[in-house]
């Protein structure tokens, strides 16, 4: 199995296909398994890069029970170095948008474009706040089995994909997950959004009402941004509306002439 080393931990990754490098970032507990369909269907045109964040699935935790968002972005840079990739297009899903945003802010010269899927730059709405606090509570009780099942069933009806997601969540470090949920709760990069100069696509499910507020923050602070809604879906776009998502990604790369990045 392929691993790379970053900040004291050996982290599991997968890289398939060739072309502009898309690096997908997952929410807590889901790991690279979240992007099974993206690896299968986008590798004809792109280098699709996924990895289990430290303490998740097959990745080590480096002897620590914490993962800061800034450290996650550092791990992204280490993986890009490991693969010999000078620029990437981070694709952050849900709270996986946090490390994607942090990377774009901290490594602007290495960010060719940025794709945010059901993402947000801060937690400032009651429903999202409560959902993350439920995650913190669940990991305090080490309810990984329950979380694994819920993540799998809520994201896909494909039994094979469900098994991948469940296996990753169950193998993850519960204390690190608790702390990552907390770090996601308090992460805030809104004031730094004007530093992002690359083209950005912010993609939301038309029915994802409790997340829609955050699109206005992106629109207010990011200069070169497209806001895109996918009909008939709430939050789980990568697994439930992959065809529409992949069409948007292909169009975004073509529109901004990103096909030659490596």
UniProtKB/TrEMBL annotation:
It comes from the Bacteria. Keywords: Hydrolase. Gene3D superfamilies: alpha/beta hydrolase (3.40.50.1820). It holds the Pfam family Abhydrolase_1. InterPro entries: AB_hydrolase, AB_hydrolase_1, AB_hydrolase_fold. Residues 20-123 form the AB hydrolase-1 domain. One of its GO terms (molecular function) is hydrolase activity. This is Alpha/beta fold hydrolase.
